Task: structure prediction
Amino acid sequence: MNVSDSTNDSHPPRRTIDLSADVGEGCPFDDLLLDGLVSSASVCCGAHAGGPRTIRRTLEFARDRGVAVGAHPGYPDREHFGRREQAISADAVTTLILDQVGSLVDLAAEVGVAVRFLKPHGALYNQAQRQNPIARGVVDAAAELGLPLLGLPGSVLNAWAVGRGVRYVAEGFADRRYRPDGSLVPRGEPDALLHDPDEMTTQLAVLLARRRVATICIHGDDPRAVENARTVRRLLDDMRIAVRSFTADEEGGG
Result:
């Protein structure tokens, strides 16, 4: 369902929000997610999953569907899909991200796509939300790349980004379970993913009511990814909230 198609001049959307998906990891749902369901795509950089052919095809599909592209670097740990935490210095984090994003930027340029934002993947993302050295390394990379950075609101990463003057885009999750402190339950723990559409709807409604997030993420590796995205679109449609990439503001509202 396309929210913009279901609204009219007499009942215009009251607000907009970005809906993104983590893609390019070799999962079978990318095309369906990018074809009218999401407005932004965090594209794997090839370290934790994916590969040049898969990533190129994802970039081309996003380009053809007008989906904004961001870089999704992670730990080079394909065995654990980048979800195993690492003991790593801030400088090593920066280097890791710059190397991976540099490769993605080169590939994107070949297909005529601009990389518009940065979102760490998996354990790198989770550690950056609460650990100062990891957060500093991520923010240093974002600053050098000149890219907006996605992460949890009120996190350590959020504070580092503000301190460095890096644009921070607060992210919420419709398909992940939260802890009471606002952090995400790690994927390796039981019930880390939400399965019940009603529970997802309730969580999304809370995230939107608090107006603390500018983008909502759908995990492209979840077998229910497309169903989850459609559930989110239906709820947004009911709330008269239009789906629009946060990067559109940088393009003069296009």
